[in-house]
Amino acid sequence: MKLDPSRGPIYLQLAQEITRWIARGDLQPGDRLPPVRELAKRFRVNPNTVVQVYGELERQGITHTQRGRGTFVREDVEVAALRRALLQEAAASFLEEARALGLTLEEAMAALQEVVHARPTEGDR
Amino acid sequence: MKLDPSRGPIYLQLAQEITRWIARGDLQPGDRLPPVRELAKRFRVNPNTVVQVYGELERQGITHTQRGRGTFVREDVEVAALRRALLQEAAASFLEEARALGLTLEEAMAALQEVVHARPTEGDR
DNA sequence: GACATTGTACTAGTGAACTAGTACAATAGT
DNA sequence: ACTATTGTACTAGTTCACTAGTACAATGTC
Predict the structure, then answer these.
(1) Is A45 a residue whose pLDDT tops 80?
(2) Chain B residue with minimum CA distance to A98
(3) B39 and which of A13, A52, B34, B125 could share a cystine (Cβ 3.0–4.6 Å)?
(4) Strand runs (DSSP E) across B10-83, as ranges?
(5) What's the pTM value of the predicted model, to 2 decimals?
(6) Residue A1, SS3 per DSSP
């Protein structure tokens, strides 16, 4: 995962990446996130930036934080729903781009198939 | 089209939007783009920002500029290829997100269908 | 109680992006 | 030659994001 300022603020990209960790089960409800200073080192950003990341996740209701203890995935997070929400957002973006280009759904799906077949994935084997 | 600093630099978003205009035929090869000051007004940005936009489009080989005359879509731009490239980039983003979420191609396609059916498009009628 | 770990607040600084404004250079039309 | 139109360069400023560093507060362990 590469942080790229041309794709928006770093802290939002990182918040998205942590959300993916939760969505795919790398982190479970109740799990503790890496401490601020540890994540800062891992991603080579400033600890204050990670504080912003964790603040954003808290605002989105995904985590809760306690000074002196850490930041935790909320117990009531529905991982499957989170995953579906992230994927549907990506799907919506794709369809919106097709719409903005004046293309039909069929044309969008055809383009998708071309990309699928161009990549070495299990969808192609 | 909404310019949102949280999605990266304004000038890159605008460059993408102009590229869409070309890709869907709103602007044809040889056509002149709106003058810098006019586009600035339309999108409520600074003319210097539009100069950056046009600079980026020139760097990408989509337009060429002449002081005193204007900025033009290059005659040799292949509109269909440009459209395909933009859509495939969007498709690749979508698939990459599915991959990052640890999902199979089938699951990705299912999520896409859900979004399709949730929207009032011709694909659903 | 001391210590380690964790989050937080703050100051001061840097850099990129964007803005406002002015003025100049090239081109085209009359 | 003059004017209008277009792009460009520049200065000076603001804002936001990020950084580096320091120090404090809360929590948990021993």
Answers:
(1) yes
(2) B87
(3) B34
(4) 63-66, 70-73
(5) 0.91
(6) coil
ipTM rounded to 2 decimals? 0.89
How close B103 comes to chain A (CA, Å)? 8
Backbone φ and ψ of B32, nearest 5°: -90, 140
B6·A25 Cβ contact <8 A: no
pLDDT band at B121 (very low <50, low <70, confident <90, very high): low
The C-alpha of A102 sits at a distance from chain B's nearest C-alpha, in angstroms, of 6
CB neighbour list of residue A91: distance below 8 Å, 6 or more residues apart: B94, B108, B111, B112, B114, B115
A36 vs A53: CA distance, rounded Å: 9
Q: Which of B36, B69, B22, B56 lies closest to A100 in space, CA to CA?
A: B22
Band (pLDDT 50/70/90 cuts) for residue A31 is very high
Say what angle helices A10-23 and A47-59 make with each other, to 10 degrees: 60
Judged by phi (left if over 0) then psi (alpha if -120 to 50, else beta), residue A69 lies in alpha
Cα–Cα distance, B73 to B61 (Å, whole number): 9
In contact, B18 and B52? CB cutoff 8 Å: no
Q: For residue B13, give the nucleotide whose C1' atom is nearest its CA.
A: C17
Q: Which of A28, A52, A87 to mutate to test the interface with B (most CBs of B within 10 A)?
A: A87
> How much of chain A exceeds pLDDT 70, in percent?
95
Q: Does B105 touch chain A (CB under 8 A)?
A: yes
